[in-house]
Amino acid sequence: MAGLDYARERRMSRSTTVQATVMQAPAIDQFEVLNDVLITVEDGVITAIAPAASFAGTVDHVVEPGSVLMPGLIDLHIHAPQWPQVGTGYDLPLEEWLFAYTFPLEAKYSDLSFAIDVWDSMVPRLLANGTTTAVYYGSVHGPATTALAEACVRHGQRAFVGRVAMDHPDGTPEWYRDATTEAGLEASAESIESINGLGSPLVAPIVTPRFIPACTDEMLTGLGQLAADTGTLVQTHCSESDWEHGYVLDRFGATDAEALDRFGLLQTSTVLAHAGHLTTNDLHRLAHRHSGVAHCPLSNVYFGNAVFAARRALDAGVNVGLGTDIAGGPSPSLFANAAQAVNASRLLEDGVDANIEAAQRGVAGSRIDALAGFWLATMGGAAVLNQPIGLLEVGRRFDAIEVTTERIGVWAEVDSPVRIFEKIVRMANEADISRVWVDGDVKRR
After folding, report:
1. Which of 144, 148, 316, 353 is deepest in the core (most CB within 10 A)?
2. Beta 271-274 vs 292-295: how paired, if at all?
3. Residue 318 and residue 399 share a domain
4. 100 and 214 part of one domain
5. Tens-place pLDDT, residues 64-79
6. Domain around 334
7. Cα separations in angstroms, 380 against 88, 226, 264, 428
8. Residue 279 — very low, low, confident or very high, per pLDDT cuts 50/70/90?
């Protein structure tokens, strides 16, 4: 019913006008300021951007001086069932963390009422953090995963929602896995049909093998075929940690990227989480397949065992965006992850062990700056998903956030626009985001 109601509402013509100064990153090395412009939006699409002084009509919303308008943020990697454990349990390595903390929590989503309570807490909170587009892992439970998609429709967040498939007896506990490969494939197909049946232009399904250690060869083959047959995007983990990367090498004699490609899972806009242990050949493979990486810099501190070389991947032609990896990462803020992406790149370039000579300590040419960090959270994510979002320009969807600089602090005597932008990227959080639009509709005010 939620999907039907939503579809009926969307048939009504919608228009809005917003007057603002815009700050954004059209390219990884390009900072753009649009001073005092009027943005016209029709049915969610930006149809015009012109100087506000040239407009004589009524403006629906004015972003006042002291605040700026920015593109909505795109989170490529969220484990929705892990929302209740954000910020906890970082004392164990990944392979132990899953069994000790995460799988027991995810098993609770057989209780649909519990699931709905979590979704109705999480989705609005992520919107409040400026996350206008989210790529979600659900649990193995079909009803809970559909309820997650319904929550995204209800709260108006653009989202890709996937039922997690996992059937390997060695990589999953007996009490939390698909009963059989056939049952798991059937449940994933039903989940795709159910989410598509909601009729929402904002919410789509995504095929979701958890990762290779949790899936049999038969499951991986079947999911690759399911994605191809239904035209559905794919998400999974890839070369996340020493353990996961090494496990795949031992099992297949091939890297994670090579193995996923064999199973037909490296497709256009496949979202590969973490990818901190990719080889040079892996990067070329991803670029050739037009698959992308969800860089999760905060999570990688705890579970990655390495720094993802974002600059190297981008230079190889791989699309890269950002992910929070809730709850592998302790913050739902993409601003925090953009700032950490910059920090991680500096650590990679400079090295971390003072006992090694400076010239040999780091990896030259690794650093990115705050502009690049924000680009990853906007245009980078849009490129991975191949969606017309991530930038405020004519022809793209109007996903946007209003950010106030009052708490951050701006000094007219010293702060140029680029300095204000840097402060926002490094310091802004939920408290500074005063309004959020998705597809032209206000979701936070």
Report:
1. 148
2. parallel
3. no
4. yes
5. 999 999 999 999 999 9
6. 73-385
7. 29, 27, 24, 19
8. very high
